[in-house]
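About this split. The held-out portion is used to measure sequence recovery: a designer receives only the structure tokens and must propose an amino acid at every position. Recovery is the fraction of positions where the proposal matches the reference. Here is one held-out target exactly as it appears in the evaluation file.
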């Protein structure tokens, strides 16, 4: 099939690359000239494991192209996929301006057989609104499909090629069948729904997962108070198939480009309908407070943080990405510096993006060793594999004081017990003080 993808962010790019990988001819369109020039030469604007290899091979095979020209990119396409961003507005609502611009661009070049697929995360009712908008401008009836995306950053290719499900929200069977046909080579479960249900599935899924995280974080704090261990508790709960093991990892709160934005956007839509989503409000409150937890623990331990050198390992909102959007590291770094601490941070890939947000407030270094040298305490903020594999006794020797605040529960009890001297504070587990009693 001949496919156009509008927008080359995480979703657009991963979708375009994967669709070309399964044999379609894909043209990705973006208004950012520099990005398109780079992508045409196989240069990625983001860090995403596995993406570059597929990008190169599909460009070489002649199935994947990039352009800034809507005329060239949209001409004569069977399917036009919209994957532009819907960022959060000041009032929490989704900003639909990129989507509306995409609709205007499409209406100039669309042909009658083209089916439009909206992948961007949009509030209920948006697909119908965009359909009307395009029909008004192009002058003939069009088919629109709501096809929300569930891929995660850091595993975008895997998630696309092995999706748990593909949702096709439609009001026309024939158009739905065409989109089903487009995805057929992936051989994953496909669910046909109404357009509004598809839009809601995306939001309900993301806010459920965000709530699951806030739930386990709240239970973690409770475990800490009563001397239980959240890792054992989560495992014991997760073995119940009705609960499931995924997304029960306690930590310092969810971040990223989706959960925080989608929870706010759903609350905003609910308000418009006079619906009170009380549980979601708690999800947000717990998450905000969880992002402050490591700093609170450090304050409790030290009394004050003025002049303390804190080594911070991890900046990205999660491992395998350089994305800093809503990362807990931002709150933590700002709170620490406000309290007079000196923060020295290292991340394998996110330093460039972090500098853009945190500026000169903290010091960025290029290796774990530089960060930990002479540190009063170590904060673990992102669970990169490199940190899970640290030689802890060696790390602790290089610090001024062997004190760890682990926001991601990276180490097991016996790993801590194997250290000669250490104070170890983690999430939802008993504090451990070894060799200093
Ligand atoms: C999420 C959804 O998972 C995906 O389906 C949707 O399309 C986009 O939003 P993403 O933001 O890339 O994906 O990352 P995800 O792996 O879901 O993690 C989100 C945040 O939750 C991260 O900050 C992560 O650290 C946190 N998290 C996740 C936890 O704190 N505990 C968990 O058990 C899982």
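Reference sequence for scoring:
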């Amino acid at each position: 099939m001949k496919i156009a993808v509008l927008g080359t962010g995480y979703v657009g790019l991963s979708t375009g690359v994967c669709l070309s990988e399964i044999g379609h001819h894909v043209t990705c369109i973006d208004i950012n000239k520099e990005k398109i020039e780079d992508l045409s030469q196989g240069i990625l604007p983001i860090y995403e494991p596995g993406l570059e290899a597929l990008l190169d091979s599909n460009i070489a095979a002649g199935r994947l192209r990039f352009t800034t020209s809507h005329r060239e990119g949209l001409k004569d396409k069977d399917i036009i996929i919209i994957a532009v961003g819907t960022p959060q507005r000041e009032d929490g609502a989704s900003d639909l301006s990129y989507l509306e611009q995409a609709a205007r661009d499409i209406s100039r070049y669309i042909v009658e057989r083209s089916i439009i697929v909206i992948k961007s995360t949009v509030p209920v009712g948006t697909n119908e609104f965009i359909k009307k908008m395009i029909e008004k401008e192009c002058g003939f009836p069009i088919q629109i499909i709501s096809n929300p995306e569930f891929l995660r950053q850091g595993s975008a290719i895997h998630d696309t090629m092995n999706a748990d499900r593909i949702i096709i929200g439609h009001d026309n069977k024939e158009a739905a069948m065409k989109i089903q046909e487009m995805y057929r080579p992936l051989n994953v479960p496909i669910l046909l729904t109404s357009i509004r249900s598809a839009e809601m599935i995306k939001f309900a899924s993301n806010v459920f997962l965000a709530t699951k995280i806030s739930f386990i974080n709240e239970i973690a704090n409770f475990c800490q108070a009563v001397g239980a261990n959240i890792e054992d508790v989560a495992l014991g709960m997760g073995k119940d198939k009705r609960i499931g093991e995924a997304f029960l990892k306690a930590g310092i709160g969810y971040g990223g480009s989706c959960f925080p934005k989608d929870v706010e956007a759903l609350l905003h839509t609910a308000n418009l309908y006079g619906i009170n989503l009380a549980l979601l409000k708690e999800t947000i409150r717990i998450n905000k407070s969880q992002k402050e937890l490591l700093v609170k623990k450090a304050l409790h331990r030290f009394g004050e943080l003025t002049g303390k050198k804190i080594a911070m390992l991890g900046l990205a909102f999660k491992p395998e990405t350089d994305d800093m959007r809503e990362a807990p590291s931002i709150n933590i770094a700002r709170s620490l510096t406000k309290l007079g601490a000196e923060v020295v941070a290292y991340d394998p890939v996110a330093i460039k993006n972090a500098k853009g947000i945190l500026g000169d407030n903290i010091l960025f270094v290029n290796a774990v060793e530089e960060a930990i040298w002479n540190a009063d305490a170590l904060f673990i903020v992102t669970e990169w594999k490199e940190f899970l594999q640290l030689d802890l006794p060696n790390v602790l020797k290089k610090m001024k004081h062997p004190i760890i605040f682990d926001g991601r529960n990276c180490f097991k009890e016996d790993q801590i017990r194997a250290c000669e001297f250490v104070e170890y504070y983690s999430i939802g587990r008993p504090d451990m003080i070894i060799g200093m009693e």
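Annotator remark: Residues 149-153, 206, 209, 213, 247-249, 251, 254-256, 258-259, 317-318 surround uridine-5'-diphosphate-xylopyranose (CB under 6 Å).
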